[in-house]
Amino acid sequence: MISRRTSRAVAALLGLVALAILGYALRWRSNPSPCPYSQRYAIDLPRPIITRSRLREVLEPRPGERVLEVGPGTGHYTGTVARAIDPSGTLHAVDVQSEMVEHLRTRTREEGRSNVEAIRGDARSLPYSDDTFDAAYLVLVLGEIPDQQRALDELERVLKPDGRLVVGESLPDPHFVGFERLRRRVERRGLALDARVGTRAGYFARFDADTSERSADPVE
């Protein structure tokens, strides 16, 4: 039988561990940064709410479209969307980490995907002209960007006048962006909410461009 003293020691140790985890999460949340390449294996863990099939359902990628993925990481969602826009569509995958880009290039090559263009780039300054993409999406990424306002401005800029944007978020991601906060930010840029699936703890939200409501200088 475990003594009372031992039980207290174990409880105290577990408490310290919990505090350490909480402190790490709070520090990470207050200092936005992408998932390090050394922790890439966590990227492909199951995502019960924000699944690949649900992303495809909300994004509605179509053959021949030009689609942008911001922050693909190792490519958890990339293959699903790339297949949907075959045979003549192209998926441009932009990640800020060179290691992730090389990993994704290797992965798509091994999978025989020729319609994925993975490049290193910053969401705050996308290397594309205005009105380039039919659709864009980012999953578990927005909260990792130091300047979310600028990233949303860039996404609105590169979308075509009838384009669509899908954002996916889910707990326990320490950079989780709540739906209402996201909605306010995106709608200030003239994109209207069209669909949402999921729960408060995890969701996909789709916004469609509306040129009649786009703001020249959105304010947070």
TrEMBL record:
SUPFAM superfamilies: S-adenosyl-L-methionine-dependent methyltransferases. Keywords: Methyltransferase, Transferase. One of its GO terms (biological process) is methylation. GO terms for molecular function: methyltransferase activity. InterPro entries: Erg6_SMT_methyltransf, SAM-dependent_MTases_sf. PANTHER family: GERANYL DIPHOSPHATE 2-C-METHYLTRANSFERASE, ZGC:194242. This is UbiE/COQ5 methyltransferase-like protein. It comes from Halopiger aswanensis. The lineage of its organism: Archaea, Methanobacteriati, Methanobacteriota, Stenosarchaea group, Halobacteria.
